[in-house]
Amino acid sequence: MTHATDPRSGAVISVRNLTKRFGKVTAVNNVDFDVIPNTITGLLGRNGAGKTTIMQVLTGQEFATSGDVRVFGEAPAENARVLSRISFIKESQRYPDDFQPKHVFESAPWFFENWDADFAAELVKEFRLPLDRRIKKLSRGQLSAVGVIVGLASRAPLTFFDEPYLGLDAVARQLFYDRLLEDYAEHPRTVVLSTHLIDEVSQLLEHVLVIDQGSIIVDEPAEALRGSATTVVGMRGAVESFVEGREILSREGIGGLASVTVGKLSAADRREAAAAGLELSPVSLQQLIVRRTNVTEKEFEIQS
Amino acid sequence: MTTASSTRQAQQGKRSTAPQPGQIQAGNPHPMNRIWKAARLNLINKWTVYWIPLMILGFIWVINMIIWWIISASVTGSDRQDALDGTQWSGASFYIFVYMLVIGVQAMNMTFGYALGLSLTRREFYLGSTLAFLLLSVSYGVILTVLSYVEEWTNGWGFGGHMFTSIYFGSGEVWQRLFIFTVAMMFFAFVGTVSGTVYMRWRTNGLLVASAISILLIVGAVALITLTQSWHLVGEWFVAVGPHGVVTWMLVPTALSALAGYFILSRATPRG
């Protein structure tokens, strides 16, 4: 991770040497990264890796222990000029006890100048959200829908979604991805999405940040990351001779067949593989990240 | 995900590569506007801030009416006068002040987290909440003052009873009544507020320490007064300054609570 010491000009978010400690626990450890405008960045990692803490510092909800954090070129903490351009939707968002969703959709527009009331009304219908039920009485999925609708309809220049869809079913999650992409295409803005459902969102992401135990371990464009490994499948002998001398990430086999995941392949490598009658298939983003964070895939999924 | 990818292709064509200045620059919000919106955030549910407390007040009034009716129906002569005079020690409307305290606690406890979720600063939220509590206190001051006059004009609701003209509020000039009711409401609102901020900042331990300190201060004061045998002075002071004077002095702890709340909340973080 090499970065210039100056915040990159043109970045919406620029973080240098950020550390956040809670008592003796170091949640975020000397982290550097930038987010460029009008991209969708995935902030990925295991539970407790520090994703939420980073987003809370970026949105002024937590105070950094040390380091330099710039959002829209300024420090975000207690800074209305920065915060007025941010929408932060988090799984743990609390609402006043006496609130109903209609109170949320009445008050949220006061604070987001780009709020689109028609879009919000349409989303309420699509997520089948009851407007005049106490928020305390909503199901987990309906509660998540409240946040997702605020996050989308606020159209803030910088929008954070922190695990926004706990309890939403597959249909509702797909609805969220579709609406996010459509609206993002029409109204470009910067989105940071934290999730553990990596494969579901991998098509959305343009840039990937992976955090593990408080440190950034991956900071790459999604496209580069996807091409950084390939699985080679074919007859054992052919596969073995092809992968010899290459970086091998994992290896499986049944009978005379073998399946080996190797690092980046060049165009010439791909032609050679095709000539040898081998099949090449891309490795999913989730598998790649799981490999880099040194956990089994099963362990990763269980965390949800 | 085919639809998603095709949408992506479409929008990538549309997007310009160089960031426009507006996309990386901070905004220019109007501070007063945001503080006013923060105030409205506390008042958005009219049921919570007006209708429910007023309905409970109405219910207490009905119960009092029944009691006054029982007294006037079962007791006669000077005994009846004695009993109804006794109702000027009524604490029937005290509940509304406690309700105000709860509103202060809840604002810091729950509305605070929601306000930060809407990207308000702590400062904007606290100043807005302060404004909301002042408005609420004044509006309740007006309501209670009007009720105290109605009580007088109807000769204690027809039974000679007292609920809004009790001894604690006095029966002075209109501005005196308004002042007493409003300041008493403010006192409870900001005591609730400061308690709520202590919890937000230091959680349960903070509340325990704050309670311990308050109890020590009260016990210390009681000890001091008792050992110097000056309880009669305290009593004389209350009589001398009257309800109006007592309430004026309440402005001091009210203002201190409001100020302390501001500084305590300025470094507090809402956690789920």
From TrEMBL, chain A:
Residue ranges the record marks as coiled coil: none
Presence of the UniProt keyword Hydrolase in the record: no
Annotated InterPro entries: AAA+_ATPase, ABC_transporter-like_ATP-bd, P-loop_NTPase
SMART domains associated with the record: AAA
Protein origin, superkingdom: Bacteria
All copies of domain ABC transporter, residue ranges: 13-238
SUPFAM superfamilies membership: P-loop containing nucleoside triphosphate hydrolases
Keywords from the named record: ATP-binding, Nucleotide-binding
Pfam families linked to this entry: ABC_tran
Species this chain originates from: Mycetocola zhadangensis
Name of the molecule in the record: ABC transporter ATP-binding protein
Molecular function, one GO term: ATP binding
